[in-house]
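lol forgot to send this yesterday, sorry. C-alpha cells for the thing we talked abt
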C-alpha cells in the first residue's frame, strides 16, 4: 500500500452514505421478515394462547419499527418545513460543509 493514498473526508462521506443506505435496506428487509415470521407463528399457533401472544408481539414490534421509521421521516420533514431548509440538504451528510 502506497503512503500517498491517504483517505480524504469525501471518501468518508461516501462510506457513510453507503452504510446508511445499507442500514435502511436491511431495516426494510427485517420488517418484511418479521411480518412473515409473525404471520407464520400466528397461523401455526393452533389456538395456543402463548404462541398467539408471541406471534402478536412479533407483528406488533414490526409495525412499531415501521412507525418509528416513518415518524423519523416526518420529524425531518417538519424540521425542513420549519427552518426552510430543503430536505435533501438537511439529510445530506457532509464533513467539509459543501
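and heres what i got for the seq, position by position
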Amino acid at each position: 500500500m502506497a503512503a500517498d493514498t491517504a483517505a480524504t473526508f469525501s471518501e468518508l462521506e461516501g462510506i457513510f452514505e453507503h452504510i446508511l443506505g445499507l442500514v435502511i435496506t436491511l431495516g426494510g428487509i427485517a420488517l418484511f421478515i418479521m411480518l412473515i415470521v409473525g404471520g407464520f407463528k400466528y397461523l401455526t399457533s393452533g389456538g395456543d394462547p402463548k404462541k398467539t401472544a408471541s406471534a402478536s408481539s412479533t407483528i406488533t414490534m414490526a409495525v412499531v419499527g415501521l412507525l418509528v421509521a416513518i415518524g423519523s421521516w416526518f420529524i425531518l420533514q417538519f424540521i425542513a418545513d420549519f427552518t426552510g431548509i430543503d430536505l435533501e440538504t438537511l439529510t445530506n451528510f457532509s464533513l467539509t460543509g459543501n
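The longest helix spans residues 9-43. anyway ping me if u want another try
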